[in-house]
Amino acid sequence: MAVPSPAPPTPPRPRRARRWPALALALPALLLVAAAGVAWQSLHTETGTRWWVERVAARLPGVSAGTSSGALLGADARFRLDRLAIELGRQRIRIDALALDGLTLSEPRLTAPHGLLSARGLSAQQVAIEPLPAAAPPEPAAKPARLRLPVALRVEQLAVERLSVAGLAAPIEQLRARLEAGAVHRIEALTLRWQGVRLRGDATLGADAPLPLQAALTARTEDAGTDAVLPAWARALTLELQARGTLALIDTRARLAMQDQQLDLQAQVAPFDRLPLPQLEARFGRLDLARLLAPVLGAGRSAPTTALTGSARVQLSARQPLLLHLAAQNAAPGPWDAGRLPLREADLLLRGRGGAWEVERAALQFAGDERTPAGRLSAAGRFDGLDHGTLAALGGALTLNLDGLRPDLLDRRGPALRLSGPLTLQHAPAAAAGAAFGTLAVEARLDGALQGAAR
């Protein structure tokens, strides 16, 4: 009798079936890579670039764009956009006639920076930076720990024909520079024209702590032959500025020659501190505040005409004793209503520590013109609570001693009086929380005499 053979073993399940979970997990990543590749290729074409510009402008809040032409990416690409507006924080940036040439991405890598985005040229006919209305005052800027970007950037030639910034008296013209952003951010071969003055400079800023900074800037009147169309302050002007340190604490040196004026200063600038100018030393000769401040005050506003010679020192760093010192003579005094400063000489010395300040010396000599004295004023006193940053916390007293002070010579609209005697001001801190001021008490024992005919 034949013995039946055993049933054959069940064949194993094909291994291909076990690959499906891995493929299912990898599929989204593969689709993402494919989509990125399609998008990347589309930005190398004019049609694709236009499609992306329209979608970005329609979907991103605060962004609007006009008509584009040309491809965005490619060594030979020439992208053009007639209008672009972007809202960043509390500002709106408007760009007209934007042009971007030869934008490419090279040196790709998985770790940051993930590549080098470089352009042969980036230009605009006009750029305007405008403030947006805000319901509350802006918060103080915080000191950044690092300034790294996801990709390194390089622009071989930046060109802006006209740059308007809110607060500047006139737009900046013919701005040119070479830019780099990476481990070290660089501005090289910077040049621009502002109200007939040509500025040139270079600057570097490290992207990692402590954010080392170095910059040099020179400014000179561009062409002496155009004096007829130059503002008065811009004629025969030379400025040299050096800055180095870190972004949080910058040591600066500047030398300014403006016609017959001279100004030399050294300063420390702390842009993120409550007191952004902790230290300053300056020497000046025949300094005219009207011409010196004209570039920043603009039309419709002016400082008084002066001819100040002397020195100033400011020391507000908490790491050393506090000091304010000014010693100056004014060779061109005059009444305030005539656009002059009715001060002939000033000698001020204040010392402090923490929030306590003492007026160690304060002597002012006034004058109605170069030959007419207008009285003297001296002061002494002490204040506490200035480190709180509000007048409500201020406490102390200040005594002013008037000696033959002539209000009508300080300002011709004033009364024709000669005043002498002490005037004491006392301020007590506010008792109520949230108050803007405390309690001010005034005590005066002044002798007055009419001068000339009654008006």
Any overview of this molecule?
This protein is mainly beta. 11% of the residues lie in helices and 49% in strands. It contains 4 helices and 26 strands. The protein has helices spanning 20-42, 46-59, 289-297, 407-410; strands at 63-65, 68-69, 78-88, 91-101, 104-106, 116-119, 121-124, 126-131, 152-165, 172-181, 184-194, 197-206, 212-221, 237-246, 249-258, 261-269, 279-287, 308-315, 322-330, 343-353, 356-367, 373-384, 395-405, 417-428, 439-444, 447-450. The chain has a 26-stranded mixed beta sheet that branches. Strand 2 and strand 3 (78-88) form a beta hairpin. The longest helix is centred in the first third of the chain and has 23 residues, at 20-42. It is elongated and about 135 Å long. The protein starts with 19 loop residues before the first helix and ends in a 5-residue tail after the last strand. The mean pLDDT is 87.
Task: Give a nutshell description of this structure.
This protein has helices at residues 20-42, 46-59, 289-297, 407-410; strands spanning 63-65, 68-69, 78-88, 91-101, 104-106, 116-119, 121-124, 126-131, 152-165, 172-181, 184-194, 197-206, 212-221, 237-246, 249-258, 261-269, 279-287, 308-315, 322-330, 343-353, 356-367, 373-384, 395-405, 417-428, 439-444, 447-450. The chain has 455 residues and is mostly beta strands.
